Amino acid sequence: MTSIEQYGRFIPEEGCFELTAPPPRKWINLHYNLIGDNEIYSEITNIGDGRTVCRDHAGNTCVLVDWDHKYCYIRDEKSGTVFCPGGEPAPQQVDNVVTKYYPAKTITTGECIGLKVEQRVFVPLDHPMEVRTVWVENATAEEREVSVFMYAMFQLNGCDSESNTVWKDNLSFIEPEINGVLVVNRHADVPTGRYKGYVVALNHYHGASGYRDYFTRSDFSLGTPKILWGWDADNKPGMGPDCAGVVQVKIKIPAGAKGRADFLLGQTSSLDEVKGILQQTNEQTVDGWCAAQEAAEAKRTNAFTVDTGNENWDGLLNTFVKKQLYSYLLNKAGFRDNLQCDCALALCDYEAAKGNLLRALSSQYANGSVPHGFRPLNDLLYSDQPAWIFLTVPWLIKESGDFSLLDETVPYLGSDETGTVWDHMLRAMRYLANDTGANALCDQHYADWNDGLEATKEAGDRESVMVTMQFCFGMKEFVELAQRRGDSDVAGEAQGYYDTFAARLNDVAWDGEWYVRTICGDGYRIGSAAGKEGRIFMNTQSWAVLAGVASDERAELCMAAVDEHCEKEVGFQVCAPGFSKYDPRVGRNSGSLPGTGENGGCYNHAAGFKAVADCMMGRAEEAWRTFEKVAPDNPLNPVSNSECEPFSFNNFYVQVPGFMGKSGYPWRTGTSGWFTMLMVEWILGARRHYGGLLIDPCLPKHIKSAGIQRTYRGTVFNIKLDNTSGRCKGAVEIRVDGIPMVGNLLTCIDGGTHEVHVMI
After folding, report:
1. Which residues form the Glycosyl hydrolase 94 supersandwich domain (predicted)?
2. Residue 756 to residues 686, 716, 747: CA-CA distances in angstroms?
3. What is d(CA 524, CA 535) in angstroms, rounded to the nearest whole number?
């Protein structure tokens, strides 16, 4: 039994996680619509609150509702008892509370004073709105009248498409034509007409109210609002920073019967738009929207399923990680973040990954450089951004087999020029090859993958060893892709860059037992054994292996150093030891609390790089242990301590005394992409390749069998791995439909289903 079971369990046949006890913190699910012109990213917890953010194609971002600002309440009109479906924030005891987290919806049930309540929350595919349906069953022998209140406080601030702050100047209007409240940010600087929100009822509403202070008492507590003392919605509009929407629906429910209330909370451009939605919407419409979202999630979910022997890992990877990957693209603005996610998302939704890649490439400048972020734009120069193009484009083609991706035409940012994807790659390659510093390594500019290594006046010009390694990794990919494209000149150019930069790295960045992280203009070397703090950075050891720039001997030394210095009980430190005080040569990274984030914290995204490097070297035990420490419910850091959701990868575990192992940032993390690829392609070994599906597992000795079902280029492969020999790495025999095959590349891409037995 793991510590997850004290809170709930995965139910594979239902495709959900069932929470049956109060979690150590509020556990979040995500709901969202399709990537497109008007996106919504809505968080929902076991008690029904969560942040809701909208974004348009250009990147104008509107915070619709912030944390702790949306709840549903039920009031029995005879007794005056008020309760919430999840038992909070209203103080009334609710029995038998259960929350089921599904990819497409979140359902919470509970019982109070003879009323059985079910709340369903989801987001439709085609609308920027959150839909909340509340069913109230009367389990008593007499008719009951209840009021169902939906409350949300609207922010309507955020940023424009160029990352400038959007302030708020809000007004709320009671609108009987839409059964609810419309809130408008009338600030002169709002960039579009969509900084408006609404909350409405499908049912005939009893009343509405437009400001937080009308709903709460003077302490502004949402746990004890005025409805506990019989308050009804007063139909008053509001003005000011705390404009809200309160909608009250009254329902009479006969004995043994069910009543229903539906609420829509969303973003709009106008009152007429909301009226148009309501004219086409009824209970059946809402249920159809939910079914369509379920079908969309199921399509991604069915793309691959794993059998690791660990039911919690299987539940995370089979049911939830695909939505974590897709939703990441609706929330993250970083070029690097999006491209890494695309690599993993292609395993379950190639078209979404391809579309996002093309959109990201349209933010590349004509000189080959790339801004830090797009949607919204952040034009600070982080040196790693172009390097991710060399990973993502080849890996998408390896997944799809579609080389025509290289001929897609994409514009350049701020220019009349356009170019093919291949041209974008060439410009990125030549830009990085020439953007170098004093040691002819890649210039770090403002920062690189590690945002905290920000430039300061004291640091001067700096060179990034990690980005130089990423460039070498990319050149290896470029060589193979150019050869397959028949472009020998580009293949030779990329090979020349690889040879030159790999030699430079080994000449100037080797520190004796590992590679340094950054070389400053004054000669100071971040990540050197000569320092007292930040002596080793894990990423340059991992990428030395990934890029193949380290000799076998040096690769062994690098990973041994990571084992000794970076591995902790709760994960893997990006740098060790963390910086205890601010060092201007290092930048913001050194000013963070030691043991948090990238300053000596266990930053899980980076552990993904490390674990793939482990597999490349055949370090099966270390790769498995890395997955175990990063996945929720590490035996040495149980969920009861880390507090992380069992159904989401998270960003980091802290190394701060008194808070050791606490997790941070579920859902919005690059951890999900790298650990998905780690398990599917490197540990279970069903890896994409230009010529087919490469079988190359890397299992630890104690795992005697495992499996994966993987849909690859329209063909389903049911792969069973036999590790009874304890050889751990590679395949000595592969049988496809009972017939032995030569080599380890599955090329029977025929749209059918094949049974594959692999002897490791």
Report:
1. 24-282
2. 11, 10, 12
3. 12
